[in-house]
Write a structure and sequence with these properties.
Helix content is about 20%, strand content about 45%. The protein has two domains: about 30 residues; about 110 residues, Macroglobulin (MG2) domain (Immunoglobulin-like). A hairpin with a 4-residue loop joins strand 8 and strand 9. The chain is globular. With about 140 residues, it is of the alpha+beta class. The longest helix has 28 residues. The structure holds copper (II) ion (CU). Copper (II) ion binds next to loops.
């Protein structure tokens, strides 16, 4: 009787562990679109995480920008401004995304929207007390 119960518990645990592994794997696979780049004058290593993968068309959504210097130190209290557009179409972004510092080198970028298919550029201008640099990300919608 006791052995039966232990066996049942083991089976239940194995089942739950299996479910957990499936859930974690699914979460990782459905994760956010990310990319990393070095700023134009090589001051910063910058990455972004968009809320969705792939980045959606015609839907306002946020990104989280992560900024480190080339030694891996978090860049905090920077002023981040956003620009971008479609060079081939000679137009800018359809919205005016705004950055808010989250801490830990992270900056929330709200109001990003890509309003048509094609090649887009996103520019982030990063200004600290001593350094101003910019970084470009290219996206194909
Ligand atoms: Cu366009």
């Amino acid at each position: 009787m006791r052995r039966f119960k232990v066996g049942l518990v083991v089976k239940k645990c194995a089942f739950l562990l299996g479910c957990l592994i499936i859930a974690v794997t699914a979460y990782a696979e459905s994760g956010d679109q990310t990319a990393e780049a070095i700023s134009e004058e090589s001051h910063f290593r910058v990455s972004y995480k968009a809320q969705y993968d792939p980045v959606p068309l015609n839907q306002i959504h946020p990104w989280v920008l992560h900024v480190e210097d080339m030694e891996g130190n978090l860049v905090e209290k920077a002023v981040v401004t956003v620009d971008g557009g479609m060079p081939a179409h000679n137009h800018g972004l359809p919205t005016e995304p705004v950055a808010t510092e989250l801490g830990g080198g992270d900056y929330l970028i709200e109001g990003i929207k890509f309003s048509m298919t094609g090649s887009w550029e996103m520019w982030f201008y990063i200004q600290t007390e001593t350094i101003t640099d910019k970084v470009k990300f290219e996206l194909e919608m």
